[in-house]
Every structure is written in structure tokens, then in C-alpha cells.
Amino acid sequence: MEKEMYVFLGAIGAALISYFAQSLNSRNQIKIAEKNLEQHLRLQDEKMAGERLIKEVELERNKLEQLHVVLSLLAFENSQTMSYMQSGSETDLDKFRSRYIDNTIRLHEAEAIAEIYSHVKDLKADIAKRGKWLKQEMLP
Question: How many Å apart are CA 97 and CA 116, to the nearest integer?
Fold first, then answer.
């Protein structure tokens, strides 16, 4: 009977050791899985932040390109060359007013772009200066 008791106690001891080892192993696997998940989420956040930054820079470049086109067109409309070309032609008052309104709309578009992307140094002040110059040049 004593042998059977030792065998029984040995089986219970082995089962307890096995249970504790398995619970320790499960806990370690859960910790490893949590760390892997955190790392995966961090990498995804960094990837999304990088993609967002790329999109923001692309959008900003497109808007600044659009701003450059608008300002170049305004500069051309008020250049000496254009003034010379129009001085030789008979431009009626309605056409002149229409061009003035178009240029004012373009100027407001440029100011809106500059306001949105105001972190570009002194862009708004430069456009405001050009706007005052435009208004002085366009007035008869």
C-alpha cells in the first residue's frame, strides 16, 4: 500500500509541476503576444504618419504651384508688356472691368491659399503687397 501511495503522490506532484509549468508558459506567451502587438501597432502608426506626411507635402506643393501660377498670371496681366499691348488696342470699359474683376478673384484665391499655408514665410504679406500694387495699377 505504501508503494501505491508514493506512486499516487508522485503522480499528483508531477501533475502540479506540469500545471505550474504550463501556466508559466501561457503567461510568457501572452506577454510575448502583447509585446508583438504593441510593436506591430507602433509600426503601423509610424507607417501611417509617414504616408500622411507625404500626402500633406504633396498637397502643399500642389497648392503652392497653383499659387505661383495665379501670381504669375496676375504679374503678366499687370506687366509693362501687357500694358503696351493694350495701349495700342481699343479696349472698351466693360472688357477692362471684366479683367479687373477676374484679377481680383485670382488675387482672393491666392490670398486664400496663402492663408491656409501661412507657415510659408511671409507669403501672405507678399501677396497683400502685390494686391495693393494690382489695385493701384488697374485703377484708371
Answer: 29
Which residues are CB-contacts of 113 (< 8 A; sequence separation ≥ 6)?
Answer: 63, 64, 66, 67, 70
**Grid coordinates representing 43?**
509600426
CB 111 within 8 A of CB 131: yes
Rounded to whole angstroms, how far apart are CA atoms 140 and 138?
6
Q: d(Cα 21, Cα 70) in Å, to the nearest integer? A: 73
**Tens-digit pLDDT profile for residues 22-53:** 999 999 999 999 999 999 998 888 888 888 88
What CA–CA distance (Å, rounded) separates 137 from 140? Answer: 8
Cell of 40: 506591430
Q: How far is Cα of residue 108 from the mean position of the Cα atoms in its chain? A: 23
- Residue among 66, 63, 131, 65 nearest 103 (CA): 131
Residues of the chain whose pLDDT is less than 50? 140
Q: Is the pTM of the predicted complex or chain greater than 0.70?
A: no
